[in-house]
């Protein structure tokens, strides 16, 4: 199957084909018109109407001149076809080259639209680059209408993403105040001496539920913040962050093993610390009941990036379930986070948002025997 030609090649093919066809028709018509003027053509026509052609015996000189004229004329016609064909081929090649340049010039505005769309599509974050506009000038034609429509679409998408982030941030902020008040009232009730054991148990359950809602709001606010552009960047060594985060892990049944090599990058230290914290917490929370461990490592990646790798023991994770783990409020074998779950269901979503905002990426692979291997790749420090 032949590869499909580009629009520029097709336009050039049409231009060149029409020019060659017109040249061939012009050359053929010229040949026919000149051939009708050949010596002896009138005599032949006259003989068909009753005229008598010259007798070659009585007029040998005239007959010889006529034959010479016919031979010269036929040679001239042959030269016309030969030289005309060569000239047509040369001019056709020039016309095709000119058509190629003209098609490229006409498609230049379309290339500008394509380059803008490619820059936006290749942006590390989904909403990165939506502020860009084509703003194509020139006369109003089909390509300008396409560019203007594309600009309107970008403006609406940009407005929708901004509105979504503002809604999450505002809703989280407005809900934080009543949750804080509820927590204070519950703590006061729990620490009163005349409180009954049943009321204490109910207060602890409500306090745990209130704490979970606070963690959910913190995750939503962090997710809304990390999905945007990272403003001020500074030099950060992921090895230092890993050492700091792992030393804060309380002792328990899950062992945390650290292998932190130098991994310098640039970014927001607070967000990167939260990235490491979420991965370590997830590795500890989703683990086996006995002899579980979490291995955290940093170092240089094979492609020139710096990498953070968090590996843990845990339940067996089907490969097809891995992409869903990075969606908000998604967990393994369930579509939404259960009410009694200790987490907010935003850990890996926040990790992906932070990595993307820093120009990096995150991937997860099921570990043989259970658990996950999560690898975060970030650009190195320049």
Which helices and strands occur, and which strands form pairs?
Layout: H1 7-35, H2 41-48, H3 60-106, H4 108-121, H5 142-190, H6 197-226, E1 234-237, H7 238-247, E2 255-260, E3 264-267, H8 269-285, E4 293-300, E5 306-312, H9 347-357, E6 361-366, E7 372-378
Helix pairs in contact: 1-3, 5-6, 6-9, 7-8, 8-9
Q: Can you walk through the features of this model?
A:
- Among the domains are: 7-106; 232-378, 2-Layer Sandwich (Heat Shock Protein 90).
- The protein is built from 9 helices and 7 strands.
- The protein has helices at residues 7-35, 41-48, 60-106, 108-121, 142-190, 197-226, 238-247, 269-285, 347-357; strands at residues 234-237, 255-260, 264-267, 293-300, 306-312, 361-366, 372-378.
- The longest helix has 49 residues, at 142-190.
- The two termini are 47 Å apart.
State the strand order across the main sheet.
2-4-5-7-6
CATH architecture designation of the domain at 232-378: 2-Layer Sandwich
* Number of E-type strands: 7
The best one-word shape is: elongated
Mean pLDDT: 80
Number of helices: 9
CATH topology title of the domain at 232-378: Heat Shock Protein 90
Q: What kind of oligomer do you see? A: single chain
Low-confidence stretches: 42-52, 334-341
Main β sheet profile: 5 strands, mixed
- Helix fraction bin: 55-70%
Short description, anyone?
With 382 residues, the protein is an alpha+beta fold. It has 9 helices and 7 strands; from the N terminus they run ααααααβαββαββαββ.
């Amino acid at each position: 199957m032949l590869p499909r030609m580009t629009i520029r090649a097709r336009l050039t093919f049409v231009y060149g084909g029409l020019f060659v066809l017109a040249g061939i028709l012009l050359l053929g018509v010229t040949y026919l018109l000149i051939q009708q003027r050949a010596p002896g053509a009138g005599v032949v026509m006259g003989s068909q109407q009753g005229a008598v052609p010259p007798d070659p015996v009585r007029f040998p000189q005239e007959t010889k001149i006529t034959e010479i004229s016919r031979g010269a004329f036929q040679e001239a016609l042959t030269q016309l076809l030969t030289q005309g064909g060569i000239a047509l081929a040369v001019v056709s090649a020039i016309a095709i080259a000119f058509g190629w340049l003209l098609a490229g010039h006409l498609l230049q505005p379309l290339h500008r639209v394509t380059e803008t769309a490619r820059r936006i599509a290749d942006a590390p974050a989904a909403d990165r680059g939506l502020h860009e506009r084509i703003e194509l000038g020139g006369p109003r034609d089909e390509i300008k209408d396409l560019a203007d429509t594309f600009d309107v679409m970008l403006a609406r998408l940009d407005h929708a993403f901004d509105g979504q982030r503002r809604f999450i941030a505002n809703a989280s902020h407005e809900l934080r105040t009543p949750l804080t008040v509820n927590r204070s009232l519950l703590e006061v009730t729990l620490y009163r001496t005349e409180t009954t054991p049943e009321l204490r148990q109910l207060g602890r359950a409500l306090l745990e539920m209130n704490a979970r809602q606070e963690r959910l709001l913190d995750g939503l606010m962090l997710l809304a913040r990390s999905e945007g552009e990272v403003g001020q960047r500074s030099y950060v060594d992921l090895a230092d962050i890993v050492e700091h985060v792992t030393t804060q892990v309380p002792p328990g049944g899950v062992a945390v093993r650290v292998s932190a090599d130098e991994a310098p990058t640039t970014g927001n230290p607070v967000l990167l610390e939260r990235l490491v914290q979420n991965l370590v917490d997830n590795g500890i929370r989703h683990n086996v009941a006995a002899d579980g461990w979490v291995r955290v490592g940093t170092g240089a990646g094979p492609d020139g990036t710096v990498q953070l790798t968090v590996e843990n023991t845990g339940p067996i994770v089907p490969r097809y379930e891995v992409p869903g783990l990075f969606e908000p409020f998604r967990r393994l074998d369930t579509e939404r986070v259960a009410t009694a779950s200790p987490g907010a269901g935003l850990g890996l979503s926040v990790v992906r948002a932070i990595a993307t905002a820093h120009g990096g990426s995150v991937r997860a692979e099921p570990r043989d025997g259970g658990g996950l291997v999560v690898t975060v790749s970030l650009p190195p420090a320049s």
